[in-house]
Amino acid sequence: MRSLLLQVIAVTTINLKSIAQRLWLSLSTVVAVALVVIVLLAFLAMANGFQRTLAGSGSEDIAIFLRGGSQAEINSTVARDQVRLIEDAPGIARGGDGKPLISPELYVVVDGVKRSSQTKANLPLRGIGEQGVALRKGITISEGRMFNRGANEIVVGKGLLKEFEGFEPGKTVAFATSRWTVVGTFEAEGSVFESEIWADLPVVQSLFNRPNFVQTVRVRLENPSLAALKSYNDNDPRLKLDVKTEAAYFADQAGQTTDLIQNLGWPLAIAMALGALAGALNTMYSSVAARAVEIATLRAIGFGGFPAFVGTLVESLVLASIGGLIGAAATWAIFDGLTASTLGGNFTQVVFAFQLTPALIWQGVLLALAVGLIGGLFPAIRAARMPIVAGLYA
After folding, report:
1. If both were cysteines, with which of 3, 70, 183, 228 could 91 make a disulfide (CB 3.0 to 4.6 Å apart)?
2. What is the C-alpha to C-alpha distance for residues 329 and 334, in angstroms, rounded to an integer?
C-alpha cells in the first residue's frame, strides 16, 4: 500500500510540473471553466440580492389586506367601506391617541428613465396614509424633507434615485395630468421600499381618479398572531379579503422572480459547462499523448496503471479548481454589491444589489470540479490502460 501511495504521489507530481509545457492549452481550460463559474455566480448573486431585498422588507408584526385572490398589490382593490371595517378589527395596535395604526395605500405605475440605458421603465408611485411611514421600519429622510399633506409633492427612495434620472430633490416631474415636486429622498435600510416614490394618499387618489378605492391596507398587529384578524375578516361577508403578514407577502413576491432568475442561470451555465468540458477533454487527452513515452517508461520500470489514472485525474481537477477560484474571485470583484433593477411582482422596477455569499461560491466551485472530474476521467482511463509498447513507440 505504501509503495502504491508513493507511486501515486510521484506520478501526480510529475503531471503537475509538466503543466507548464502545455501552458496555452491548460490556460484555455482554466479560462473556459472560469467563464462558466462567472455566468453561474452572476445569476445566483442576482437572485440572492433580489430575494434579500424583498425578504428584508417584511415584518411579522405588520399585516396586509388585499382583495381575495390577488397575488400582488397592482391587482388588488379595497373599497373605502372595507377600510372603515378594517379600522374596527380586533388585534390591531393603537397609537397614543387611541386611533388604530393603519395605512390605506394606493399603488400606481408611472414612467421613469434609466440612467444607464436611457430607456423608459415602470416605477411604483405609492400613495400612503398618515401612518404609512410609521408602519415601516428604518425609514429616514436622507435629503430634503417629507412631503406635505394635500400637496403635489413626492419623496423618492434612495435606490430608485440611483438607477433613474430626473428625481433629484428640487426637480419637477409629470405623472398623469399633473406635475409633482420632488422634496426629499428617503432610505429604508436597503429594502424594496427604496425602489418606490411616495406621495400623500388623497392627492394620488384624486389625480389618478380613484377616489373610493385603495389597493392595500397595512396595519400593525398587537401581537404576531393573525388569528383574531383572520377570523374577523372571514366572518364578515363585507370583507372576505386576503390577509397575511408583510413578511409572508414579500416572501411570495421574492420567490417568483428568484425562481425565474435561477431557472435562467443554471441552464445557461450548464450549456457553457458542456463547452468547457470539451476543452477539458481536449487538454487532458493532449496531456496524455504528450506524456505517452513517460507513462510507458514508468510502467516498464514497475509503476502500475492506477498511479497514471490518479495523476491525470488530479491534473484535470487542479486546472478546473484554478478556473473555479478565478471565476469566483472575478464575480466577487465585478458583481458583488453591483446595483441593478428588474421587474418585480407588481410589474414595476425593483432596485437591488447583487450579493455573493460563501454558499453560492461553493456551488460555483462544485460545478468547476464536476467539469474537471468528467473532463479528466476518460483521459485518465486511457493513461491507465496505455500499452507499454504503444507508449514507447509514440
Report:
1. 228
2. 9
Contact 25, 297 (CB under 8 A): no
Q: What is the pTM of this model?
A: 0.74
In a domain, 204, yes or no: yes
First to last CA, the chain: 31
Q: Count CA within 13 A, CB hemisphere, residue 85.
A: 17
d(CA 230, CA 92): 11
Domain span including residue 97? 68-240
Going by C-beta distance under 8 Å and a sequence separation of 6 or more, which residues neighbour residue 160? 112, 123, 167, 194, 195, 196, 197, 349, 351
Coil, strand or helix at 175 = strand
Q: How many domains does the chain have?
A: 2
pLDDT digits (tens, 9 = 90+) for 11-22: 677 767 777 777
| Angle between helix 305-335 and helix 2-17 axes, rounded to 10 deg | 50
Task: State whether 267 and 197 are in the same domain.
Answer: no
